[in-house]
């Protein structure tokens, strides 16, 4: 696909397509013409003797100094160079590309006052798959993601290190020359327009939302597998019971589980014993729709925030629709930071309930007739004992990541920027949490599939059988202990690429 920038708000799927899959971008001609028209207003103000912030003044706490015309190119260049002060490990390519696309989208709103060549150069660098080297630390989430965006702006100027599509690290001047891209010489306002936005944190939000849409459905698959493997009851997932508490996410999750276990021989055979001996399933099974549903509803709220942000023009100052150039606070990352933190909380809880379900399989006092630790020969074999340790270690980290970044603020710029969002940090930890959730769910799926095999000769439902079959394409069935790490990683890959979910949906239809 080709993504058109400037034709309206980008979608989350378009952000992912460019960021993760390297799709090309094109600029809307009408929007580019409006960019050129707006630039005229900046040039008028540049010639005005009255100081205008970002055009003829310094920045931040230095905004009181009026900059003469002959120093303004140096002003913009110095701004970018000084703000490219990141440190630490390199940020992932997909995050940098998302950040670049979203900054380009704001440039194409015609509210930043840059020349068309700035947007054209940004698009050319993206399409040439030149990725600036951006570092882990350097953004406080206000005034936007300054250091990350400044490293990208440096590359447009032909300065600093970048990575090519091959992953090779080269200097930006060489990369631009090889791609026949002329380095930018920045004019009034343009350096500021290139670095003053919430694009990094929003890019990470978009990527996380895309991944969580898959993982929350996979969580329902894992629940259904565990329900069968533990010979529980599906009656608690009945629609009328769910509608007594009418949260849409809860209803969707319960509906998925009902569909996935429909027709299960394992559950049908266990009904009489369950009624006589067990009465109720544990909370981690019985309350799965309430937890996964709350996660779904949180994702829906975060998606709404992301969609609003994708329609935004984030810069300071901006060229308003009536032509005035006005300072504002739209660069503050609070709205994005809050939902990034909120998602980290629910991701941690979804992983936590998954780990608790997995643990039930391993304890002979709770697994309803299965071998200890699902081992082939308990004592000689350890089965999935340590797989649960891996889950527990991940869940513990996710709980630490659930501590919100957005409640912190360290004043900067000589107290001019005295309240910041820490949204970039919220995005960084959410990425680690999303990865951790995928791994925890993979261990539950792997363990539940093994338990279901132990329930032979009774067969699982069509949906859960599809999941087991998918696992068995890479992981053998029960037997003596094997090297477990590669088997876990194989199922992690099935979860993160959505291949497991696709196999299940091919069997039962698209999940809610």
TrEMBL record:
It is found in: Cytoplasm. The keyword Ion transport does not apply. Keywords: Histidine metabolism, Lyase. Its EC number is 4.3.1.3. It catalyses: L-histidine = trans-urocanate + NH4(+). InterPro entries: Aromatic_Lyase, Fumarase/histidase_N, HutH, L-Aspartase-like, Phe/His_NH3-lyase_AS. The keyword Lyase applies. Pathway: Amino-acid degradation; L-histidine degradation into L-glutamate; N-formimidoyl-L-glutamate from L-histidine: step 1/3. It comes from the Bacteria. GO terms for molecular function: histidine ammonia-lyase activity. SUPFAM superfamilies: L-aspartase-like. Belongs to the PAL/histidase family. NCBIfam families: hutH, PRK09367.1. This is Histidine ammonia-lyase. It comes from Corynebacterium felinum.
């Amino acid at each position: 696909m080709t993504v058109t920038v400037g034709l309206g708000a980008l979608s989350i799927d378009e952000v992912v397509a460019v960021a993760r899959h390297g799709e090309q971008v094109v600029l809307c001609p009408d929007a580019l013409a409006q960019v050129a028209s707006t630039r005229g207003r900046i040039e008028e103000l540049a010639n005005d003797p009255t100081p205008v912030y970002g055009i003829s003044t310094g920045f931040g706490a230095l905004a009181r100094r009026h900059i003469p015309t002959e120093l303004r190119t140096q002003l913009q260049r110095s701004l970018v160079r000084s703000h490219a002060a990141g440190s630490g490990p390199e940020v992932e390519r997909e995050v940098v590309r998302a950040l670049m696309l979203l900054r380009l989208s704001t440039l194409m709103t015609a509210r930043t006052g840059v020349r068309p060549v700035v947007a054209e150069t940004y698009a050319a660098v993206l399409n040439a798959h030149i990725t600036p080297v951006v570092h882990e630390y350097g953004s406080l989430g206000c005034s936007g993601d300054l250091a990350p965006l400044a490293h990208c702006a440096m590359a447009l100027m032909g300065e600093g290190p970048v990575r090519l599509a091959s992953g090779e690290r080269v200097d930006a001047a060489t990369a631009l020359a090889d791609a026949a891209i002329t380095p930018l010489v920045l004019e009034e306002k343009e350096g500021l327009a290139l670095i003053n936005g919430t694009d990094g944190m929003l890019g990470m939000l978009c990527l996380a939302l895309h991944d969580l849409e898959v993982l929350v459905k996979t969580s329902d698959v894992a629940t259904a597998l565990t329900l069968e493997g533990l010979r529980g009851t599906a009656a608690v997932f009945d629609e009328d019971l769910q509608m007594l508490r009418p949260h849409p996410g809860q209803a969707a999750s319960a509906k998925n589980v009902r569909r996935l276990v429909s027709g299960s021989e394992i559950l049908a055979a266990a009904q009489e014993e369950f009624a006589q001996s067990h009465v109720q399933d544990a909370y981690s099974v019985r309350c799965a729709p309430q937890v996964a549903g709350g996660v779904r509803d949180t994702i829906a709220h975060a998606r709404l925030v992301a969609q609003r942000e994708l329609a935004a023009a984030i810069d300071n100052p901006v060229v308003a629709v009536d032509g005035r150039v006005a300072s504002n606070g739209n660069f503050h990352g609070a709205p994005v930071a809050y939902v990034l933190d909120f998602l980290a909380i629910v991701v941690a809880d979804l992983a936590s309930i998954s780990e608790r379900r997995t643990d039930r399989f391993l304890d002979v006092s709770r697994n309803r007739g299965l071998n200890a630790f699902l081992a082939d020969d308990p004592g000689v074999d350890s089965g999935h004992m340590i797989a649960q340790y891996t889950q527990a270690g991940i869940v513990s980290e996710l709980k630490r990541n659930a501590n919100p970044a957005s409640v912190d603020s360290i004043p900067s710029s000589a107290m001019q920027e005295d309240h910041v969002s820490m949204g970039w940090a919220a995005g960084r930890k959410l990425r680690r949490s999303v990865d951790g959730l995928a791994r925890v769910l993979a261990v539950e799926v792997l363990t539940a599939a093994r338990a279901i095999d132990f329930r032979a000769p009774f067969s699982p439902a069509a949906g859960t059988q599809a999941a087991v079959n998918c696992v068995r394409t890479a992981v053998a069935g029960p037997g003596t202990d094997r090297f477990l790490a590669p088997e876990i990683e194989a199922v992690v890959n099935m979860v993160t690429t959505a291949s497991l979910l696709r196999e299940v949906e091919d069997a039962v239809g698209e999940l809610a």
